[in-house]
Amino acid sequence: MTRGLRSILLSLMMLCAGLAAPARAEVVVSFYSHDFGDRFPHAFIVLKGKVDATGEMVDANYGFTATSVSPAILFGAVKGEVQTSKPGYVAKSDRQFDVTVDDATYALLMAKVTEWRERKQPSYSLNKFNCVHFVMELAEVAGLKVNRKSKFFKKPKSFLIEVKGLNPQLG
């Protein structure tokens, strides 16, 4: 067998071995906004997929909001919480874009969710720590560029459109 033919056969065998390898499992993070209304949060993420290292199936969503919506949120910090929304709420919301993350980034996202969940109370501030700030930090963890001086911290959809504009790879 000639050296050239041996090289071609070896390349073909490697290609076939690569095709037979199992698909890499990943988690898709979808960034959502919900038009203002009496339901909260107005910005949140949905995670779906499979963690490669453990085989864990992921199907969850997280947003940050005040535990009780009252006029008090207009005057200062109030008690806040990381919240999971029901499927109907997610379905009525607008998915702005998706990012696929690897296991390490998924772990960092979950650590950030836990960090917000365990914040000292009162933890919700309309001007400093609202649902958009929460989603902004998660977008950063997912590797996206964000505008930390955005004028859209009270406009979830506009903020996420701005993030999309800062990250041309999102299409």
Summarize it:
This protein has 171 residues and is of the alpha+beta class. The protein has helices spanning 3-20, 87-91, 103-117, 131-141, 156-166; strands spanning 27-33, 43-50, 57-66, 80-83, 94-101. The chain is globular, with a radius of gyration of 21 Å.
Describe this structure in words.
By secondary structure, this protein is an alpha+beta fold. It has one domain. Helix content is 35%, strand content 22%. It has five helices and five strands. The protein has helices at residues 3-20, 87-91, 103-117, 131-141, 156-166, and strands at residues 27-33, 43-50, 57-66, 80-83, 94-101. A five-stranded antiparallel β-sheet has the order 4-3-2-1-5, with helices on one face. Helix 3 (103-117) packs antiparallel against helix 4. The longest helix has 18 residues, at 3-20.
| Low-confidence segments | 4-23
What sequence of helices (H) and strands (E) makes up the elements?
HEEEEHEHHH
Extended strand count: 5
Major beta sheet summary: 5 strands, antiparallel
Strand content is: 15-25%
- Terminal-residue CA separation: 49 Å
How are the strands of the biggest sheet laid out side by side?
A: 4-3-2-1-5
Counted up, domains total: 1
| Structural shape | globular
Give the helix/strand class: alpha+beta
Q: Determine the fraction of residues in helical runs and give it as a percent range.
A: 25-40%
